[in-house]
Protein: Aminotransferase
Organism: Aurantimonas marianensis
Amino acid sequence: MTAPPIARAGRWIESYDGAHGAMIDCSQAVPDHAPPAEFAERLAVTAASQEAARYGDILGDQALRAAYASHVSSLYRSEIAASRVAITAGCNQAFFAAMLGVAQAGDAVVLPAPWYFNHKMTLEMLGIEARVLPLQAETGFLPVPSDVEALIDDRCRALVLVSPNNPTGAVYPPDLLAELLDVCVRRSLTLVLDETYRDFLAPESGAPHRLFGSAAAREHLVSLYSFSKSYAIPGHRVGAMIAGSGFIAQMEKVIDCVQICAPRPTQAALPWAIPALADWRGDNRHEIAKRAGVFREETGRLDGWALQQIGAYFAYVRHPWRGLSAEAVAEALMRDLGVLVLPGSFFGPSQEDHLRIAFANVPVDRIRELARRLALGLAGGFRADDQPHATRTAHG
């Protein structure tokens, strides 16, 4: 790609003339609200402190590592020591560091498609082959363990999964994750599991998985997390990693060379926020679940559109314009209707019929407006076929 995908899509905004009202931005997973006032105040106070201006521990402030370890231990009902936690400058840095820890140039990593584009970009920058595992709508965009194993050879070092998934929203069942960890153990791979959106799963469904209770997890599992979405602080760049103590020791070297430490003010405020904002996070989770329900209802009324997967933050939909590139469709939706979504082609091969819609960014009334505008497209208000940069695909 000539530019990072979010930046590339953002350049389409200026083409919209405002004819349908304010634009509806469903392009990026960004909370549509600020953090709660007390948390914001604590962030401001810590940012002004002398201590926060200093370098911190490379693996993260001890108080945050302990608070996060305690939280995850409770959530997964499995004891996790603070020494197995590293705090990173966002989950993207956690993934970058993890890839440096599991593979080197010339190695391969199994990457399901559609994928999170920053994962693919990281592998490309590091000279690591992305061993593509195509996923299908018919199976809910979930991998089949035997298909994973068929891709593994002596160059493979890891399997990368995202659950709840970006871009599809698919939630990996605990039994499937256990099977995939077993594959990794049997074939001497590391399972790198990005759980950025786990806080938006319904708590009554239980722990997202049972992997931390496995003896093999210390050697074969790296779990990644982001505080950005759950705490409405994406600009503060704080993420986390859980792995075996030996792997974390290697991460200390990597993080020291990349950024030295994660931002200190947010690290200082989060140990309070993790327990104190539990109810606030729960309210946000319920609100997003309501938005998901409305999105299902509204898109179900749209002729030609197919909702193929939804969960946590994202919906993955099949658009009605066969034969037109997904990027041409997304660009025209912005230009003609003021709706910004991402084309499936940003997430891997064979995705031209799909769009990713970040519905969690949008209040219920705006989701209904979104559906109204998409219906206008089919009624003739959408000029995708006139899109000057449109490229026909092999679908015919």
Q: What stands out?
A: DSSP finds 13 helices and 13 strands in the chain.
